[in-house]
From TrEMBL:
Pfam families: Rieske, Ring_hydroxyl_A
CDD domains: RHO_alpha_C_3 (cd08887), Rieske_RO_Alpha_N (cd03469)
Assigned keywords, A-Z: 2Fe-2S, Iron, Iron-sulfur, Metal-binding, Oxidoreductase
InterPro entries reported in the protein's UniProt record: Rieske_2Fe-2S, Rieske_2Fe-2S_sf, Ring_hydroxy_dOase_asu_C_dom, Rng_hydr_dOase-A
Cofactors demanded by this protein: Fe cation
Domain called Rieske: residue spans: 55-165
Name the record gives this protein: Rieske (2Fe-2S) protein
Recorded GO MF terms: 2 iron, 2 sulfur cluster binding; iron ion binding; oxidoreductase activity
């Protein structure tokens, strides 16, 4: 974001705080729980959102150098292999050998390779997905064209430092897939120059929307995070903006922002005065803290299961070397565990919510006026799902 936007957001928080308010919707909203538990709803999400539209799947800085790769699972059991080639282009392939469909690298693996060798029969691919060699190929597969047996490549594009992929082979990823405000925000966070410190992955037994919802409202801070976040934040106070059909920026102000009115404007620093969230659902959510940026990668597995991958991005070593100092490592390790601790406070609640929804005892959920970001998200979600009364009736 530019400096003008940064100042505006701080001013908005101060004005809301002075009024004793937060950002409101016009009215409270209720939804049937079917959108969280119904296999029919999930199947329509798969059709309308997960497969047919471009999905933000990774940050390009996760694969900064030639041969760097990560394996990312997506819905329907699709295993994606994201690779930066020797031409510096980031490509997204199916993590599947063209011989017998074995995975080239393990699920969730990341590293650097110039060649990807199938562990089954050693068919070998270069970092552009071309079949570079296979044992006894000419003798055993003389009737096949090696040039047509490269890895399956999905349409993809890097925009604003974000890797987008579309699994529909008939659709491209448009150049304007990410709004200028979001691109500016990732530039503000120095996304392209950050490095991966550590990552972890695990499965949560809850719908992906429940997990997203916990990240875009502050109403629960004083209760669910009473010992972790609540002492440092301003309770149920936030400001947010939606861009396009899904993307969102949210500012969660910390108590030091109250000192802004006593400082000259040139001393105002939103990064130090608030946590900033950039949400690109369903695939990615970025949590920006003063000295790190967390990627929360969200992979919907079913109506009631979501795979989570946390990736902690940090600045390059301050001394210009390839290794962080002991003090830097200590700070990064502390943040790596703290982010997980806070997320798990939400995830545990999310699993209980999903369980209660599955029981059917309470048939609806409610969003209050100060949960306005959730109301906006579901309005846009319903547009993407192309919902109408006839469609909803088929789900019930």
């Amino acid at each position: 974001m530019d400096r003008k936007t940064e100042i505006r957001l701080i001013e908005e928080v101060l004005a809301l705080r002075e009024q004793g308010e937060t950002q409101y919707a016009q009215s409270a909203v209720a939804h049937d729980i079917d959108r969280y538990v119904s296999p029919q709803w999930f199947a329509r999400e798969n059709e309308k959102i997960f497969t047919d539209r471009p999905i933000a799947i990774a940050a390009a800085c996760e694969v900064p150098n030639q041969g760097d790769y990560i394996s990312v699972q997506w819905t329907n059991g699709i295993s994606l292999l994201i690779v930066r080639g020797d031409d510096h282009t980031v490509r997204v392939f199916a993590n599947a050998c063209r011989h017998r469909n074995a995975r080239l690298v393990d699920q969730g693996e990341r590293g650097c390779k110039r060649r990807f060798v199938c562990p089954y029969h050693a068919w070998t691919y270069d970092d552009k997905g071309n079949l570079a060699g296979a044992p006894d190929f000419d003798r055993g597969f003389s009737d096949l064209d090696k040039n047509k047996l490269g890895l399956i490549e999905f349409n993809s594009r890097v925009v604003g430092g974000i890797v987008y992929v579309c699994l529909n082979p008939n659709k491209e990823v448009p150049s304007d897939v990410l709004e200028p405000q979001m691109i500016s925000g990732f530039e503000y966070l120095n996304l392209d120059n950050l490095r991966v410190y550590k990552s972890r992955s695990y499965k949560i037994n809850a719908n992906w929307k429940i997990l997203l919802e916990g990240g875009i409202e502050a109403y629960h801070f004083n209760v669910a995070h009473k010992n972790t976040l609540a002492p440092f934040f301003l309770g149920n106070l936030s400001t947010w903006e939606g861009f396009g059909s899904r993307n969102m920026r949210m500012v969660l102000p910390k108590k030091p922002i109250l000192e802004a009115s006593e400082l000259s404007e040139d001393k105002w620093d939103l990064r130090k005065m608030a946590n900033i969230i950039y949400a690109l659902p369903p695939g990615l959510l970025f949590l920006a803290q003063p000295d790190n940026l967390s990627i929360i990668r969200t992979i919907p597995l079913s109506a009631g299961e979501t795979l989570i991958e946390e990736v902690l991005l940090v600045e390059q070593p301050a001394d210009g070397s390839d290794q962080w100092s002991d003090d830097e490592l200590k700070m990064h390790e502390t943040n790596h565990h703290l982010v997980n601790k806070i997320l798990m406070e939400d995830w545990v609640l999310g699993e209980t919510i999903q369980s209660n929804m599955a029981s059917g005892v309470v048939g609806e959920i409610h969003f209050g006026r100060f949960e306005s970001a959730l109301i906006w998200f579901h309005q846009e979600y319903e547009k993407l799902m192309e919902l109408n009364e006839d469609v909803i009736a088929r789900f019930n």
